[in-house]
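Example (one chain per record):
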Amino acid sequence: MQFDLDVEEQGHNSDDEDYVQDDLSPGLDADDDLGDGERDDEVNREQAELQMAGDFNRLIGKIQDKSVSTNDNSAWQFDIGEDADFDFQEEIRIASGLGKRKTAMEPQRRPRGQPELSPQVKRLQGDAMVAYVHHQYDKAIPILREVIKIEPASGTAWSTLAQCHKELGEETQALQLEIIGAHLMDPDVDVWRDLGRRSKDMDCIQQAIYCFRKILYIDPNDLDALWDRSYLLKLSGNLRQAQDGFLKILKILPGNPDVLEELRLIMIELDEIPRATKLFQEAFDHYKSHQPNGPDPENAENEFGARHLIALADFYNNAKEYEKALYTIRSGARWLNGRLIDAIVWDIAPDDREFDVEGYIREGVGESDSLPQGFHDLDINFRQRLAISRLRLGDIKEAEMHASVVLSLDVLEYTVLFEELADVYFEQGMYAEALRIYLDLAAHDETSSVHILMQIGACHRNLSNFDEAIEVYSWVLSADPDRVEAKTKLAEVYEITGQLQKALDLVNEGKSRLIRAMPLSTLSLNDQAATTGSIFDESRRPPVTAKSREVGRHGMTREQLRVFERHRQEAVEKAFEKLDACEGAMLRGEKVAIEFWLDEAGTLVEDYRVTRPLFTVDRYARFRGLIIERRQKRNVVASANTNEDDMASRLQLEMGSSSESAVGRDSKHGVDEFRGISFDRWLLMIVQYSFLLTREGQYSLATEVLSHVCVSNAFSGYLHQNTLRMALLVCAVRAGDHPGILEHNRRISAHNQFNNDGTRLMLATLGGGMQAMESYIDSKFQKAALREVRLTEKSAQGLPLRWSDKSFRYIYAPGNADAPGDDDAEVEGEGGSDAENDGETGVLAGGVGLGDKAARMAPQPPRATKISPVMLAQYGQICLCARSFQSAIWEFIFSGYLLQAYDAQPRDAMICLDLAVACLGRAVQRQADNRHHLIVEALSFLSKYRDHRISADIAEEIEFNFGRAFQQLGLNSLAVKHYESALDLMSDSGLAMEAAYNLSLIYVTSGSPGLAKALYRRWLSL
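Predicted structure:
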């Protein structure tokens, strides 16, 4: 894409120097002289040469091996592609200040040139040239490869080798060699552009991206290269990097419509709608200020215009910001028509009289204090968006005026506008209006669809036109008998109209089709069980046949239910025997055993999860066996949207005279097994299954299974809940899901109040790194941790607290002055809030009293009698990670969290180290009150840390921390001393790599690259 042509198309003169400078050089002051620009170009070229030299060494690394033969063609196939972490490395380089302009005192680097060739290389190169001239390419290629192995920097050898492959018709190999040879040339934009476009023509997308990136090394503002690279990144699926590239173009060319369109598509895919909305709004504001009379009519198609304004309005409508959508359409229409100045008049109007159509009579118009109707033209797409926004705002009368204009058009030409309007009417509950539009769409083969017909049926049902709804759904099923949704909706209408048998037949037919399509059916548990017929879970009922109706008014008699459940129990017991038999092989890692174990266990887990008596509304009620509870007849209209299983159960109960028990032991004290297997054995199997899924890369499924089982009433006890939470934590640690690690640790700590082990477990499992730190400073977690600190303090001070049977925790007693207000409404549980928010607790329903429930859920822990240094230190560490050093040390005139922890535990090395880090961090901040005092305090705490830690016989850790502290203070000579001492004490493990890397940074910045290189080879190389 040629952006210089786009500039002309937007109505600007290509030789207008001011415009080009303003658009292509943002951030350059008008006073910058030409010398500064030349120095920038020189710096860019020097950086490009350095980068290309590094890439060249990387690309030829594999052919440097002496074992690589010159006749081995596979070794001479190069993987040329862009470094996946380049953008991140570039941001680090810019942030660290590397690559800034060199001053006049710095020595100039020697210019590039061909190396001095040895006599042997010259002789070989001459032989190769003779063979090439005589068209003996097969002879020349091995010789040239030998030359390159001896002297890789010989540009002549690379270019000649490329020509040989080109003469042999090996264009791809020739192009790769040309690209490698281009690294040895002076940086040339045209050369790399040609290589990139040729790579693109050969469909070598990654190679083309690599070439265009090289242009950006030389000239970061090359628009063509930015566009080509970003567009290719989008094609290759690297949407995030493509977005970054287009955003860079947008900084150079603000509001460019082509770039905005590309960003719109990418950001929708990345679900970054708010950011896209902001970009489009900024572009609209830019064009309104620079082109107040609207876009150039002669070049309107290539400028920011109607399609971009429609996209912006759609963004606002989807975000439910309907007022902004209205303002966008109205102001955009004025701007497009050159009437932007009219905003002063029309913005005060509460309605859309500005765009009234001819002949529309508006009430109140003509009075002395009202605005007249404008009758201005409005694009039909704009008018339809106005109708949608008005409908969602509830301004029905205004919306109908716009909708009538849209609906007066040809439905075949404006199908999309008709369907969108109908869907909005349906969302707003205006079924009669939606039905009229859907019927217009269904009247034409070109515009009719299954979705339209299903919506027509839904409109009829909501309007109580049940006969018409049955007719529509039946017609859909006649055209597509396998459409389950249509069967379900038709069954719901049958249920509403009292045709229960027809409804049940439809539901069972749909269920049987789904079961036949399931790859892991519960029928596969046992071949003997499979011979008994279609076996459903306890939450499902068998279809009612004529024969079964003769036996009883339910699907099965009591004896049939016993036989049915006995077969299910035998199948489950045999499945567990199979698991036990292959468990040893599975634990040894045998692939066949793992697959078999996962298959059998997955079927059992699914069988458990679909059993409704194990997941009751009251999750704290004890499991009493597989029974059908007595339920009163429901209002069928209110429950018409339940799933097939619920509908089948409900229909059979409504058709029967009473509910009877299925097989299962009914005891008010509950049972401790399910289908012959104890719940402890079920829990062990489910946890093993989840661990194995996580190890096999199916972490999301493992989390789904464990989270679902957590709400089973069979596992509502304290020990079971702890086990499941720990299992979730283990899976999250294995998968590296840091937000999940934090969340599961938080829940474990919440269910073990005033216990420091939960905090220690969190710090141990969260680990290090940027992702862990970002999760650690999550605002929700910060508030929860602070609430725990405050509650522990109140308990230690002897203030009254109350035990909650709802959240199974101590909470503030009523009337406590320090009880949480609106901001702390969640205090009633980190058990309370978590449980309530996640549906883990609720109002108790029959069978279990509060005391019984509390005793089963969690033992009442002893109250905290003194402040917890662990919790205080943890919150202080959160402040450190958030760079809130002052809050970590002190808060207002009181001691901060770390100082309070130090008062409680002065001999703890970790707390001393935290205080040293906090003082150092505060000392280097701009707002520090007494920088030198803070540094002295930091070194004092660091010395205390050393005194308490030296007994652990880990001197290398102490030396590293001292070196890191001195490095932060800029005392590099002292830092070098401690880093070198640390490396002398270390093996290849521990902090060796960190110490070597930090020391190498000091060497590089102090002008000793040789010492840094030695560190790289010893400690930082694989």
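Caption: Residues 753-866 form one domain.
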